[in-house]
Amino acid sequence: MKNKYALLLIISLLFGACRSKFKPLLTSESGVQFKMISLNEAKATAKAAGKPLFVFAHASWCPTCKKMEHEILVEKQIGDVYNAQLINVAIDVDSEEGKKLNGLYPIRATPTLLYFNSDGTLAKKWEGFANTNKLLRLLP
User: Fold this and answer.
1) Do 37 and 90 touch, CB atoms closer than 8 A?
2) Quick one: DSSP state of residue 103?
3) How far is 17 from 20, CA to CA, in rounded Å?
4) DSSP H helices in the chain
């Protein structure tokens, strides 16, 4: 019985941490400014702007995604470059749009970073955490 209560306490703490501390931080003053639009809309926007497209495929339950959101994607250095050079879109893999994205470009891990050329063709795909230097090297 004691183990049952301990397990319930651990589960409650984990869910509580996800709701309060790790809320999605997909817009920040100095970091990457994400649009919350469909992949098709994002590709059309990128094509019209003549810019590559960056898709941050994330999940609300993913601690690695939260680490990137709270520590890397909010950096001014990343925001300055990504906002100027790319169209940035965030898609939750558990959403309907995320399921469509997964059908087109299988997502085996979160986060998954997808980079598309301005014509809509996939240029690069990175699975997992990426630090500042890696994000700058991944630019198409």
Assistant:
1) no
2) H
3) 5
4) 2-20, 39-49, 63-67, 76-85, 96-104, 132-138
Q: Which two tokens stand for residue 35?
A: 């649009």
Say what the pTM is: 0.82
Tallying the residues shown for the chain, one arrives at 140
Closest CA to 57 of 119, 135, 115, 6: 115
Paired tokens of 104: 């087109």
pLDDT (0 to 100) of residue 13: 44
Percent share of the chain, pLDDT over 70: 81
How do residues 16-55 score in pLDDT, each as one tens digit? 444 434 445 677 789 999 999 999 999 999 999 999 999 9
- Per the prediction, the chain carries an average pLDDT of 88
- Tracing tokens 């098709």 back to the chain, one arrives at 40
Separation of first and last alpha carbons in the chain: 55
Tell me, what amino acid is at 13? L
**What are the CA-CA distances from residue 125 to residues 4, 14, 18 (Å)?**
42, 30, 27
